[in-house]
Amino acid sequence: MTLPQRLPGQRLPACRHARGGAARGPAARACLVFVAALVACGCAGWRPWKGGDKLAQAEEKYGPSADTRIKRLAERSKAVGKTAGAQQRIDFTQELVGMMLAEHDPRVRCSILTTAADYDTAAATAICKGALEDPDDRVRTEACRIWGKRGGSEAVELLSTRFRTDAELDVRLEALRRLGTLKDKDAIPVLARALEDGDPAVQYRAVASLREVSGRDLGNDVNVWREWAADPNGKAGEWTIAEGFRRLF
After folding, report:
1. pLDDT tens, 134-143?
2. Residues 106, 136 contacting (CB under 8 angstroms)
3. Is the dihedral of CA 27, 33, 38, 39 positive or negative?
4. pTM (2 decimals)?
5. Which of 62, 144, 238, 243 could form a cystine bridge with 174, CB 3.0-4.6 A?
6. For 173-190, what is each residue's pLDDT tens digit?
7. Number of helices (H) and strands (E), helices first, in the chain?
8. Within a domain: residue 92?
9. What is the CATH number of the domain that holds 244?
10. In which band, very low, low, confident or very high, does the pLDDT at 232 lie, cut at 50, 70 and 90?
């Protein structure tokens, strides 16, 4: 087929398919528009199969991403395993301390914290304690959860301090929640003080935790719980028929 020659000032007719001479359909035009948009936004060199290479280049230039660091931490922890020897556990948790101090991303620090919580070493305990003072409230909240699981008198003391001193409401509420799950009578004084807080959310959380610690259900009246907390072993702490009905209904 001989192509027509374009004379000066003359436009060639629109391209047509070789078969049947039909003009390009809407789908073809849409494809061209999409490609043009890619070029316009600077994506002329887009190569989906080159994604791995680009990620490798970015990692070489900026270091591994947060997701990559979290993944590698999980792999490292799995390799060490809970069946590792005492010295291996000590070495690994000391390594975690260095990672925690150097890490700038709160999500990764949370992952380091939860990993350390699985180990009973001095370094792991140091991470769990230090996380309660982390500058990011998400890490402090996760630390409260960790101490709620670890338990013990030290957990009551640390969570009580976090409730009294933290500036973030979510962290304070989490500390109260975990004091309840400990079911330790030593938590009653701080929970009783929480009943005096001006925030209804704090009062509600304190009541819920006192219910867990005491094993009783005195309803949701803050004043009733104040009376009970003032003398848990006194008359107010005795089981009543009303309490029995509350449990049933």
Report:
1. 999 999 999 9
2. yes
3. positive
4. 0.70
5. 144
6. 999 999 999 999 999 999
7. 13, 0
8. no
9. 1.25.10
10. confident
